[in-house]
């Protein structure tokens, strides 16, 4: 009898330990891979452009702002990088956007953008941003952008060459 009681306790502790090990400490999302690049329009660098990578399958929305030389570093949820896979890319540049008048403030956190997406409001916000865009509207809208990229494991340098 005594042996059975001990065996049950050992079994219970073992199962509890296995369950806790399976539930603990891992990453909260897909692995992110570094993505940098340069955005140009008609061959000239585009500064202060809002770049958005929208995954076609899974992973969070990644965003960046280009610097004065057109260079950008993508971030997902505040962390550098993008989940591997195919992404649609939108690029917006507007006077209204620089002042925060398009519904998407330049300093908007990626998690706020993700929240807009979860509420089904991101597409409308991106389309509002496109209205005052200094770039062709096709680049601002998720349903018309010709830009798609494949993010691979490891470092990714992705040039975005926009034309009329």
Question: Describe it for me?
Answer:
With 164 residues, the chain is of the alpha+beta class. It has a single domain (32-162), classed as Immunoglobulin-like. The protein is 27% helix and 29% strand. It has helices at 2-23, 95-98, 110-118, 122-131; strands spanning 32-33, 35-41, 44-45, 50-55, 62-65, 71-73, 75-76, 79-80, 82-83, 85-92, 148-151, 156-157, 160-162. The strands form three sheets. The protein has a six-stranded antiparallel β-sheet with strand order 8-7-5-4-10-11, covered by helices on one side. Strands 2, 3, 6, 12 and 13 form a five-stranded mixed β-sheet that branches. The longest helix has 22 residues, at 2-23. Mean pLDDT is 77; it is low at 4-26 and 96-103.
Notable features of this structure?
globular, five-stranded mixed β-sheet, six-stranded antiparallel β-sheet, Immunoglobulin-like, 164 residues, alpha+beta
């Amino acid at each position: 009898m005594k042996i059975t009681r001990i065996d049950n306790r050992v079994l219970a502790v073992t199962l509890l330990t296995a369950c806790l090990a399976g539930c603990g400490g891992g990453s909260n999302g897909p692995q992110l891979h570094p993505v940098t690049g340069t955005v140009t329009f008609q061959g000239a660098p585009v500064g202060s452009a809002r770049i958005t990578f929208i995954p076609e399958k899974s992973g969070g929305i990644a965003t960046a702002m280009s610097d004065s030389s057109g260079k950008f570093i993508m971030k997902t949820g505040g962390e550098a990088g993008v989940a591997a896979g195919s992404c649609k890319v939108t690029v917006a540049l507007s006077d209204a956007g620089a002042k925060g008048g398009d519904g998407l403030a330049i300093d908007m956190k990626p998690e706020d953008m993700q929240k807009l997406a979860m509420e089904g409001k991101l597409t409308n916000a991106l389309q509002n941003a496109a209205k005052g865009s200094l770039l062709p509207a096709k680049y601002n809208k998720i349903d018309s952008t010709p830009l798609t990229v494949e993010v691979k494991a490891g470092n990714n340098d992705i040039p975005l060459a926009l034309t009329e």
